[in-house]
Design a protein that fits this description.
Structural Genomics Hypothetical 15.5 Kd Protein In mrcA-pckA Intergenic Region, Chain A, 2 domains, Ribosomal Protein S4 Delta 41, Chain A, domain 1, five-stranded antiparallel β-sheet, about 200 residues, alpha+beta
């Protein structure tokens, strides 16, 4: 499956709820698929359908391809403990997600582009791999020459509305730090991981 390049909130309507928490999302008023048959085609989901939808919500929120999602799930299983919590922790620790949570980009997709284009540093070294795992104590900052990029300049000016407890950043600062590992209570995105476990355990 190729990367989706269309309107992102169209995906929210397909999945039945806003997966980015936007107060202006069309799914809040029209929680059904787009198009003339969006309402008539809405049926009660089977167990498989519900599990698939739970998995798609998480995969879409973090902008992952299916192969990346499955690989991350298997890694979460190998870690021991609660697989669902491990999965969200691994996804939240990705560099593109950290750049987004710190407020340097308006969306995770924009944050991934910033990382891919080499604008971000981790502990002073350029990292252009969006899936790079940020660990507690690591400092994520903007490259000196990239501070004039409008998106980064605007993002650094003010703190994000919701800054997770596992991150720290000062206003008008071009750097932030992960202070501790994310967990189910501190991750802003609330997802039903039981459905994902059921889907991949078939």
């Amino acid at each position: 499956m190729a990367k989706y390049m269309g309107p992102r909130h169209k995906l929210c309507r397909r999945l039945g709820s806003c997966i980015w928490g936007s107060p202006k999302c069309p799914s809040l008023k029209r929680a059904y698929g787009a198009g003339p048959h969006g309402q008539t085609l809405r049926k009660k989901l089977s167990v498989y359908g519900a599990q698939l939808q739970d998995k798609q919500k998480i995969r879409t929120h973090y902008g992952l391809m299916e192969r990346q999602m499955r690989k991350t799930f298997k890694e979460a299983q190998r870690m021991g403990g609660v697989t669902g919590t491990n999965l969200l922790m691994l996804l939240e620790s990705r560099l593109d997600c950290i750049v987004y949570r710190l407020g340097f980009a308006p969306t995770i997709m924009a944050a991934r582009q910033l990382v891919n284009h080499g604008h971000m540093l981790v502990n002073g070294k350029k990292v252009d791999i969006p899936s790079f795992r940020v660990m507690p104590g690591m400092v994520v900052s903007v490259k000196e020459r990239s501070k004039k990029v409008p998106m980064l300049a605007e993002g650094a000016e003010v703190l994000p509305t919701v800054l997770p407890e596992y991150l720290s950043r000062e206003a008008k600062s071009f750097e932030g730090r992960m202070t501790t590992l994310p967990n189910a209570e501190t991750i802003p995105f609330k997802a039903d991981t039981a459905g994902v476990i059921g889907f991949y355990s078939r």
